[in-house]
Every structure is written in structure tokens, then in C-alpha cells.
Amino acid sequence: MTEAGRETGLADVRRAIDRVRSHSLRAGRFVVGDQRGLAVFLGTLCYIAVLTRVGIFITDTYTTANAFVALTEGHLGIERAVFGPSLGTPGMHVVDGQFYGRNYGQLVLSLPMYWLLEGVSLIADLRIALVAGWSLTLLWFSVVLGRLLDHQRAFTLGGSAIALVLFLANVAVATPLPETVVPVLAMQLTSVLAGALAAVVAYRLVGWLATPRTGVVAGVLLVLATPIGFWAPIPKRHVFTTLCVLLALFAFAKSRDPETPRRDLVHGSAYAVTALLAWIHAPEALVLFTALVVADLVSAPASRYRALPVVGGVFVLALLPFFVTNFLIAGNPFVPPRLLESFDPAGVGSSVVDPGSGNGAQPSDPSGDGSDASDGGVVGLLTGLFDAVVTAGATFIGLLVGGIETATARTSDLYRTFVRSGYVVADSAASEEAINLSVLESAPILGGLVAAPVAAAQRLLSSRLSVDIDHQKLREPGPATALAIAVFTLLFTLLYVERLPLHAQVTVRYLLPLYAVGVVGLVLLAPIDRVCRTERSTFAWALAGGVLIGGQVVAGFVLSQELALGEAFQFHALAGLGLASVLAVSAIATPYTERFDRLVAGALGLTTAGTVVFSLLVVTAYAPGLGRYPVDGGQLLPILRVLADLLNAA
For the purposes of burial, counting CB atoms within 10 Å of the CB of 84, is it exposed (0-12), middle (13-18) or buried (19 or more)? Predict the structure, then answer.
């Protein structure tokens, strides 16, 4: 090859590399937005990995895990029980003698991670590869953080040293991961990514509606100050639902801005995310869909109805995977697996009752529905669609009515769900201890929401008690999104409150999306937004001190007093209520004066630290008591397994 030919070849290679780099940067900006979003994403990944224990901890995860194994083998039907004692596990459905799972959207999204892990395991020890990936992520996070704080050299050197030391420490105590655990691990790591993306979307949503710095606080609080970080490694649907809700709200907010490029497609993407959620859990998708429709009808100008064909077309296209999956399983595109007959033989129960498992509907006859839909052509499809809409509507209304009755007639249950939980009578032998925390006990930072009615009252008084609704104002992104959040919060609460509290929910996991919208609503309050912008250092120091010092104090007290699991959880519950009270009292004054902003920032940091300490102790000191259905994987980071052993031996 001539010199000119070699130069031409090298130039082509450089151009190809530049194109790949350009596309990668564009994709990265599309996902995380900017360097702040990247820092939130990487930091969240590092934190959630610390909380990750490889294994199955809830019995109905056996069903989704076995369904996922079947999916990796190329079929929907479950042929054998790879996990669990048998195929007769909670959440299993039977059609013509064939077993099927549920949450298929979540399972399909986990396939790329499974293929990646299988590929990595062929060339390296999987445990070492995961530790190396976590260490590199930690290094990358430190580099990005240093760039943002204008101390890149110091953070790069310090991050390199810390990442290297932790990598060597983890390798020194690492044990091989069982090969059989790879499907569960793939589901868990996909859920971890969903949790990290939820933090990024919270950052971008709040950063766009308020300021980027406030958005960073929102992303941090979403994972550290709520149970979202705790539940992210557990392959349930709740973190995926949270991500879908935040994505839909972000797309909806952007669609309210006339300057948004391709506005109609952005608007349609809010409903496309709802379709994705339907593929995972149809009733929750119906709540989100209703909230978006209500907010659209109230806030959209008449001219926006011209976008309906685009929005509707995007929504219908996004529903195709949901319809195809339903048709392949039930023979009817409009009947999701959760509406099919459940297989739950006598003597087989769930350690955690899933209130969404039956959705309040009677089991359908899939074979009959399938023949009508497949043999009747267009008429059959329309008939099936009509029946599905009627069934879903009746079920949905029934659930909402039940929620209203609970809220009005069983206020004690409402109180135990949101304020003080305590012991819940078990309907199985899974747990006889008071290991449940209410919403406020598990996320005391939500105590700051008491500032909302105070701020509203102060604004009402300043406007001389005028209650006229400014429809033009309601069409703006902020008020329109606030309306969507309010409607979603109300409907989602009514959907589940009739079945709560449960005997083994730990941190009210069914209401996990409400934690996310609660944090978003909190930081968007004008006085709290002011605190987040002006007292960031106070918040950071309070958070660091609460975790590093307060964590040692709490761990020392729990271990020295030899508290049982239920006693330890109730200690955290009472501490959470105390921190929530401090934040609530200090936040009441924020709409009227800035004098207590530093106190509020400190309270925000301490409430966040309380949730972090609880989450860390759950995966270390309390791990043996909660790991009732392990798959022998242990903590994802081996050094934490050693720490857990030391704490349990103390």
C-alpha cells in the first residue's frame, strides 16, 4: 500500500471514530442532558450498587424470574422452575395448561443486560468484572464532579486512589457468583439503571422548571431521601413505574412550551411512556393516562387539539408491544396477563401480597376472548376493545370508589400507611415482626410538604384573597405539570389505599411513585427552591455529618442494645418521625421569612441522612433477617459482605 493510501485509510478510520464519538455524545446528551445530569447518573449508580444484594427476597419474584428465563430461551411460556420450589408461585397465570408470568415489559427491557452479562462471563470472572465496572464508574463520577466544582486535578487524583483501593479490597475478598444467578442479576441491574435514570429525569424536570442547581438537589433527594434507592436493586415493577411517571411528566412539561422542537412528538412521547407502563402494569398506566388527559383538557389551548392525530398515533404505536404480548398469551390483544386466571394452589402464598395482582377484576376466559378477537376480524377486534374498555373502566372506578371509602371510613388505615405504621397483622408466616415503615417514617423529608399549604395561603393573602383561575397561567409548563402531579397523586393513592397497610411492605413500596412526585413537588415550592439554591453547603454538611456520624451512633445503639429486627425498624421509624417533625416546623416559616433557611437546609440534610442510614443498615446489619429467599449471591460488592458479617457477629 502506498503512503497516500495509508494516509487515506487512517483518515477514514479517524472520521469513523469521530462519527461514533459524535453519536455517543449526542445520545449521552439526550439521556442525561449535561454534565450535571451525568454526575447525578453516575453518583446514583455508585450509591445503588452499594445497596444491591444479589438474590430473590419476595416470593412473587420467583414468577417473574422464571418468566425471564423462559424469555431468554425464546418463548413466553414457562416450562420449568429454575427459581423457587415449583411453578405454583404467586403471580403465575395459566392459559390452556401453559404457565405465564407478568410484567413482560420489564422483562424485555432486561434482556440486553442479560446478554451483556453472558458475554462478559465468557471472558472474565463476572464478580470481578462487576467490581471493576463499579470502580470505574466511581472514578468517572469523581472526574465529572471535579470538572463541575473546578477542582478537576484534585478530584481525579483522589478518585483514582479511592477507586483503586476499593477495587483491590473487593477483589481480595471476592467469591464467584453462581452461574444460575445471572438472570436475576440481569433483572436487578436493569432495575438499578432505571433507578439512576429516574434521578436524572427528576434533575432534568426540576432543572427545566426551576434552575439546574435545584434540579441537582431533586435528583439527589429522589434516591437518597426516599426508598427508591432501597428498592432499585430489587427486580419489582415499582422503580420502573416511578421512572415512567417522571418521564411522562417531563415530556408533558416540555410539550407545554411553544419553543420546544418537535412539540407534537414530545407531547406524544408522554403517552408513549404510558403505553410502556401498560406493558409492565396496566392499572398503574391507566392512572397515569387519566392524569395526563385531565391535565391536557384543562391546560391545553384549543389550537393544541390539532396535534391529536400525532399524539394518538404515537400512543397507538407504542401500545403495539403490549397488544402483541397479550395476543400471544391470552389470544386477545386487550387482555393483559394480570387479568387472567391466577395459579395459586392451596398452601402456596406470597410473603408480600401484591394489591395489583388481580386488579379487582374477575379472571377472564382467554380462549373465548381469543377466538372472538382472532376469528371475528375487525368486528371481533372492536368487540374485544369495547369489552376491555368496559372491564377496565368498571375495575378502575371500583378501585377508586374503594379508595374513597377507605379514606373516609377507615382513617386509621390511612394514618398507618402515611404517618405511623407499627405492627401489621400478618396473613402469612413470612413476618411476625413490626418491620414496616409508613410513608413519612421511611421518607421524613416529605414532612417539608407542610410548607405547601402555608405557601398557598400566603400567596392567597398577598393577592387579596382573589381565587380567580387564570387559564392562561394554567397553560404554562409549571402550573400544568403541577396539575398533572396533583391528579396523579390523588388517583394513585385511591388505587392502592384500600389494600394498605400490608404485613410486609417495609417502606410502602406500592406507593413508590408518590415519593418521587412528592420530592419533585417539594423542591419546586418557591421557599424550598430558595433554600436549595442558597444553602447548598449547609445541606451537604448536614447530610455528610448525619451519615458518617449519625450512622455510627445508630449502628452502635442498635447493636449494643441487641435489638430484634422489628425493634430496630421501629427505632428508625420513630427517628424518622422526629426528623420529619423538625423539618415540618422549620419549613412552616419559609414562605414568610428567610431567617430560618439555614435551619431548613440542615433539616433537609438530616432527614436525607436518616433514610440513607436506614438503607445501609438494611443491607448490612439487618440483611440476614430480611433475606428470606436468597439465591446465594450476597452483596454485589464483596467488601460489604465482609462488613455485614462483622456487624452481625458484633
Answer: buried
Each residue's pLDDT tens digit, 320-332: 999 999 999 988 8
Exposed (0-12), middle (13-18) or buried (19+): which is 152, by Cβ within 10 Å? Answer: middle
| 357: exposed, middle or buried (Cβ count in 10 Å: 0-12, 13-18, 19+) | middle
The tens digit of pLDDT for each residue in 116-145 reads: 999 999 998 999 999 999 999 999 999 999
Among 493, 475, 355, smallest CA distance to 417 is for 493
Give Cβ neighbours of residue 292 (< 8 Å, ≥ 6 apart): 248, 252, 270, 271, 274, 484
Instruction: Give the whole-angstrom CA distance, residue 481 versus residue 471.
Output: 14
Q: Is residue 142 a contact partner of residue 155, using CB atoms and an 8 Å limit?
A: yes
Q: How does residue 614 score in pLDDT terms, banded at 50, 70 and 90?
A: very high
Give the pLDDT confidence score for residue 435 in this predicted structure. 82
Q: Over the range 308-342, which residues count as b (16 or more CB within 10 Å of their CB) and which as e?
A: eeebeebbeebbebbbebbbebbbbbbbbbbbbeb
pLDDT tens digit sequence for 535-567: 889 999 999 999 999 999 999 998 888 888 888
What pLDDT does 362 receive?
37
* Residues 202 and 185 sit within 8 Å (Cβ to Cβ): no
- Cα distance between residue 237 and residue 528, in whole Å: 31
Are 189 and 231 spatial neighbours (Cβ–Cβ below 8 Å)? no
Kindly tell me the sign of the dihedral angle through the C-alpha atoms of 615, 619, 625, 627: positive
Distance CA 471, CA 494 (A): 28
The Cα–Cα gap between 495 and 511 comes to 10
- Cβ–Cβ contacts within 10 Å for residue 213, how many? 16
Measured CA to CA, the distance from residue 600 to residue 583 in angstroms comes to: 6
Identify the H or E element spanning 25: helix 3-32
Biggest distance spanned by C-alpha atoms of the chain: 87
Q: How far apart are CA 381 and CA 69, in angstroms?
A: 31
> Residue 416 and residue 8: Cα distance in Å, rounded?
72
Whether the per-residue pLDDT at 218 is higher than 50: the answer is yes
Q: What mean pLDDT comes out for the span 383-389? A: 68
In the block, which residue shows the cell 473546578?
150
Residue 54: φ, ψ to 5°: -80, 120
Q: Is 475 exposed, middle or buried (0-12, 13-18, 19+ CB in 10 A)?
A: middle
Residue 535 grid cell: 444553602
Lookup: cell for 171: 477483589
How distant, in Å, are the alpha carbons of 156, 184, 549 from that of 165? 14, 29, 23
Q: Which residue has the cell 477483589?
A: 171
Angle in degrees, 0-180, between the axes of helices 238-255 and 182-209, rounded to the nearest 10: 30
Show the CA angle centred on residue 647, arms to residues 644 and 648, nearest 5°: 85
Rounded distance, CA 346 to CA 38, Å?
50
102: enclosing H helix or E strand: none
